[in-house]
Structures are given as C-alpha cells and as structure tokens.
Design a protein that fits this description.
Helices cover 33% and strands 23% of the residues. The protein is an alpha/beta fold and 483 residues long. α10 packs parallel to α11 and α14 runs parallel beside α15. The protein is globular. It binds 5'-deoxyadenosine and iron/sulfur cluster. The site of 5'-deoxyadenosine has 12 residues, from β16.
Length: 483
C-alpha cells in the first residue's frame, strides 16, 4: 500500500519573493527534544549524508550531523547500508539538481530491499516547489523532505516518519528565524565557518537564494563573538564569517553598532589567528571595512568580490545596484588599503540577451582588475526568478564560446598571479594530508592560495613558513622552513 503523504506546506515562490523590510528577525533556541520512540528506533542504526553547494550548506550539514549523532545514529559513507540517507542539496544552477535526481535514482533497489529505509532531501532544492513535486511523483521512496528553515525540526520529522509510516514533506516557508544554540559537529579541526547572517534581500534577478533561504536575518554580535571565542578555546586557528551578503550584516537590526565593519573589528580583537569572510556584495561596501581589514593583521588579505557582469545594461537587469565604474572604483579603493590583496570573483556568462558588446565589457573589467582567480558560470534559468521569464535570443553555442574565452583569460591571469609567488616566503595554515600521496600535506596561505609541501599530519593545525618553489594555475608547491 502506498504510504500516506503529509505535506506541511510548499513554499509559494512568488509569495516568498515579496520583500518585507519591516520584518524583525525572530531569535529562538533550537529544539533538541528527542521522543522515547525515536530514541528506541535509533538504536544500532546508521545514517549517510551527502552535501552539495556552498558554505551555508556545509555549515547546515555540520548541524544535521550533530543532531543525528546526538540521537545515537552512527555516520557511515555507504548509502546502500545506511538506515537513513540524506541529501543536503543546492539549487543555484540546474545541473546541481539534475545530479541529485541521478543519485536518488540509484537508491531505488536499496529502498525496495529495505522498506524501512528513510531517504530524505533537505537544503535549497527542498525549498523549491517544482523539483519537490517532481520528487513526490517520480521517487515514491523519498519519504522525508525538509527545507533550510526547519533543520532543528529534524527529530519531530523523523518521529512522524517512523510513527505514521508516512512520507513527510515539510518545507514551511516562514520568512526565516535566527535559531541559536544549535548543536554542531564541525568537519574541520582547524578552520570553522561561522554564520553571521542568513538569507538574502537582494533579489538579483537570476538568483534563487532569496527564495530558498528566506529574508536576510543577522545574528547578534554577542552570539557571533561567543561562537568565535568557543572556537578559540577549542584550538581553532581560522574562522570564515559566512552569509549570502556579509557586508550587509546588521541592516536588519536596529542597533547602530551592528554593522559589518564593527563586527569584523570585534572578531579581530578576539585575537583568533586568521579571519576570512564571504560573500560580499559590491554595492554594500563601506570604506570602514577596508580600514578595519588594513588595521588588523589577523584579517586575511583576500576578498571575494562577485562582479557577475561588466556591462551596465546587464548589471541593471540583474538588479545588482552598481555599475562598471563603481565596481572598478571599489577595487581601486580596496587596493589603496590592501595593495597586495588576493582578489577573486564570480562571473555569469550568457545572461538573457547578453550582447557581444555586453560581454566585451565583462572582459574589459577582467583585464582591468586582473583577478587572482575567478569562478565563472553559464547562466542557468531558475524557475520563479525574474530572469527565468526574460527573453533570450543568445544561442547555447554562443554562450559556450564566450564562456571558454572568459575562462581562458581568467586561467591566464591566475597562472601569472601564481607564478609571482615563486621564491616568496608565505605563512601556511595546514589542514589536509593528500589522499593520493600521504607524504604531502596542504593548506592555505594568508592570501588564500593552496600550498602543498612534503610533510606529515603532525603539521595539521600549525601555521608555518613555507618557501614557494613552483607554481601551477591554482596551487603552489613549497618547502617547509624551520621556524
Ligand atoms: N546561473 C548561473 N550562475 C548563477 N549564480 C547564481 N545564480 C546563478 C544562475 N542562475 C552564480 C553567481 C553567484 C554564484 C554563487 O553562483 O555568480 O555569485
Ligand atoms: Fe543571490 Fe544576489 Fe543574494 Fe548573492 S546577493 S545570494 S547572487 S540574490
């Protein structure tokens, strides 16, 4: 007999997209209650979690793992053996979604063999109406779906799954809350992501994020500092302050002390050895942020500053709130304060009706700025976003030619930038032993360059001086120096 379907609510994308600036973020404590039935069910059981997407998803997965291990489930990597398989998904481009359908498809037989197996989807894709309707119809063995807003309901959702033997689709689209006190199982022992805000209010016309992650909500400075101080006492060497638009931090809080420059300065004063932050929006930068970056040596000299397009026409249609000149002026200002800044960006090629001229403007900005690295994407129409409905006469072939041209230019710039590091002495925070060659260890320099050296795992968590001896496009080879 088909399982009962419980749908708490599907988000209505159009409705979710409406702005509501008067909304005050609601802060509450995480729900940690475990029912007796759930606790009994969990005995001897295991889970497997797959994570795709950005830092926000990685951080959410750390919280999910903590919830599940706290319940007594054992984490394993084999989805065929696990009693609970969860996919923490990304919705930013279509290919990320297609990949998930393939992966769920592979579990069909395993679900048949074990009718008690729970197969779940969470993350951004779970907040989208169409993909979830597709999953409901085409993958009847997916029996748990929850969105980005209700991770801390995981126990009660699992409870319903077990008790009601039902398919639970819970993607309640509240405007978003700030949930504190969440359990956390950090994947890395030296570097940590710290959420400083959730959601996004920018509504760039191509982007699905404001619909999947809700309105912008900043955490309080006190909660953020508490988390950073806890990480310091656990021996962490680096924090990355994360959010969809970190330099808009505090806009939604009515406290004048809650601005990104003030937060950054307060975090720097904790004396954690390394601080990074991502992602920034060019339209929100205040000079004060650059001043703070220049003042504190524990704020790393690197910045990810998404350009998206160099064309004024396209930037307007993307709803980005800056033009080509303003972006270039911002880069000049940044380099005035931090001349050697490691600068990276995101660029979308083939936005609807992007002309040759528009694309030339993008190349022009890339040539002028001379990036150290860049992430380039072909525009992917996301259902429900304004750009999805825009007329587009540009052929996929044209888009792919432009993409290759841009990629070539970026690779050229990255190769030259990396080659200038040869013979330099850099400080590296080591975090990973190479999987292929156990005698190699890697980490990142202050400028966020990936550096490999000969060494063993005793170096993990240490910041050491390294002489660079060889460069590749996106990594460096070095020799460890004695301290
Ligand atoms: N198509 C292609 N790229 C996109 N990005 C966001 N939405 C889309 C889309 N619909 C890119 C942007 C953003 C990065 C995280 O992903 O460049 O900065
Ligand atoms: Fe998406 Fe724009 Fe918000 Fe970034 S700033 S998450 S691209 S809407």
């Amino acid at each position: 007999m088909a399982k009962k379907l419980i749908i708490k609510s599907f988000p209505n994308i159009k409705k979710a997209g409406q702005r509501n600036f008067n909304l005050k973020p609601l802060t509450r404590k995480a729900n940690l209650n475990i029912s007796d039935e759930l606790s009994t069910w969990a005995k001897g059981k295991s889970f497997c979690l797959f994570t795709s997407g950005c830092q926000a998803n990685v951080r959410d997965s750390e919280i999910i793992v903590a919830y599940l291990t706290r319940l007594g489930l054992n984490q394993i990597t084999d989805p065929y053996k696990a009693d609970l398989v969860l996919f923490n998904t990304c919705a930013i481009r279509e290919n990320a979604e297609k990949k998930i359908y393939g992966e769920i498809g592979q579990l069909k037989q395993s679900a048949k063999d074990n009718p008690n197996k729970i197969i779940g989807i969470c993350g951004c894709m779970a907040q989208e109406e169409k993909p979830m309707r597709f999953i409901k119809e085409h993958f009847p063995y997916v029996n748990l779906v929850f969105g980005t807003h209700n991770i801390d309901s995981i126990y009660s959702l699992l409870d319903s799954c077990i008790k009601d033997e039902a398919r639970i689709f819970d993607v309640t689209s509240n405007q978003g809350e700030v949930v504190e006190n969440l359990p956390s199982s950090r994947f890395d022992k030296t570097k940590a992501f710290v959420n400083i805000m959730y959601g996004c209010d920018n509504f760039c016309t191509y982007c699905i994020v404001p619909y999947t992650r809700g309105r912008m909500r900043s955490r309080s400075i006190d909660e953020i500092l508490k988390e950073v101080n806890d990480l310091i006492s656990l021996g962490y060497k680096e924090v990355t302050l994360i959010g969809q638009n970190v330099n808009a931090y505090g806009y939604d809080l009515k406290d004048p002390n809650s601005s990104f420059d003030k937060l950054l300065e307060a975090v720097a004063q904790t004396n954690i050895p390394r601080i990074r932050f991502t992602t920034s929006h060019p339209a929100y930068f205040k000079e004060e942020v650059f001043q703070v970056m220049a003042k504190y040596s524990n704020i790393m000299p690197s910045l990810h500053l998404p350009l998206q397009s160099g064309s004024d026409t396209i930037l307007k249609r993307m709803n980005r709130h800056y033009d080509k000149k303003q972006y270039l002026d911002l880069v000049d200002l940044l380099r005035k304060y931090i001349p050697d800044v490691y600068l990276t960006t995101d660029i979308i090629v083939g936005f609807p009706n992007e002309s040759d001229c528009d694309f030339e403007d993008t190349l022009d900005v890339v040539r002028k700025v001379n990036y150290d690295n860049a992430y380039t994407f072909i525009f992917s129409p996301r259902d429900g976003t304004p750009a999805y409905y825009m007329e587009d006469k540009i052929t996929p072939k044209e888009k792919s030619i432009r993409f290759d041209k841009l990629k070539q230019l970026i690779d050229q710039q990255a190769t030259i930038s990396a080659s200038k590091q040869v013979n330099q002495i850099v400080e590296v925070l080591f975090d990973t032993v190479s999987k292929k060659d156990k005698t190699m260890i890697s980490g990142y320099s202050r400028h966020n360059r990936l550096v490999h050296v000969k060494g063993d795992e005793s170096l993990i968590g240490q910041i050491r001086k390294v002489k660079i001896i060889e460069s590749r496009t996106y990594s460096l080879i070095g020799e460890l120096l004695d301290d």
